[in-house]
Amino acid sequence: MSTASPGSSAFSTLARRARDGFLLSSALRGVSARPADRQELIRTYHAAALDRTAVADRLTDERGAVAALLLYREAMPLLVGAIALAHDPDFQPAATPLPENASPWEVLADLHQRGRLPALPAKLEQARAALTTADALTFDRLSPQTLLDRRNLVERTVRRLQRLIETRTPSELKASRYARIVGLALVTVVLIYNVASSLLHPNLALKKPVTASSRHPDSVAPVDNSGLTNGVIETTYGVHTAPGPGWVTVDLQKVQKVSEVKLFNRRDALFDAGLPLTLETSSDGKTFTVANVRTQSFSSANPWVYEAPPGTKFRFLRISSHSMVALTEVEVY
Q: Among candidates 63, 75, 28, 52, which has minimal Cα distance to 148?
């Protein structure tokens, strides 16, 4: 009898959790099991807590830190009340979010000890100490840095506690699941299309040799001019000739049928310095024919695209200018 290895079992568990998280299955089961009025109360408490923490989150300097801590402290009973309602079916709603004389920290500890909650935030006790005070001026007496450190600690803890609550209704969760599935399907279709397109219509210029009439003395492009056909849209450029008339030639290494040429402009500055640019093709590297002339601006995001006439074939592609040639990439299809 064969048994699954620990590695395969762990992988299956991770895959199941990933699928469950993506499809919101656990969240949907939990919310669907609750009475509608209970879920609505959870949403009410959570929204009230969020109103307070949203303001506190914006009070990030020392002048607002005291107010932020007070708002976080006021939000805690509301937040923990929502957590208790969401995770403990025996927790009974009352006139107040928490039972009389019960602190939010005690309720969280009880839920965790009874296995109703997963691991609590690591610094929950520090957050409790930061917020628990009987003196109304305790926060005001703290040094600015201590005050800010406490405020930031509490904010991070509150954010982690907020993640323990699912406020969406079953219909909202189902809509989110549907949107995720549709989104994944669209991404998959685009990915398959791009992969198929790259296999059926590869970039003929990729990694092909490049020669240039000259090199700008301050150029940061590769010395062998390979930056023009390396498949990367550099932050500067892939090739840069010296000032004055110049040209750059890509050798496809054999005569090939071509339908389209894309030329991506430099990305650093002086985008139009080389205009007009002339695109020429040749089968032998000696006799070149003008295919297109570019006089209008183009960029790396909106490249110069030359649609070749049906049946076009060539081996060499040359881009020339009366001032200089500075491009980041050339693609040929």
A: 63
Q: To 10 degrees, the CA torsion angle through 230, 231, 233, 235?
A: -30
**Ranges of the chain with pLDDT below 70:** 1-8
CA proximity to 83, closest of 52, 107, 59: 107
Phi/psi of residue 68, nearest 5 degrees? -60, -45
Domain boundary assignment for the chain: 8-168, 210-332
User: Could you tell me the CATH superfamily of domain 210-332?
Assistant: Galactose-binding domain-like (2.60.120.260)
Contact 327, 320 (CB under 8 A): no
pLDDT digits (tens, 9 = 90+) for 129-156: 999 887 878 898 889 999 999 999 999 9
CB-based contact 323:308 (threshold 8 Å): no
Task: Classify the C-alpha dihedral 226-230-236-239 as positive or negative.
Answer: positive
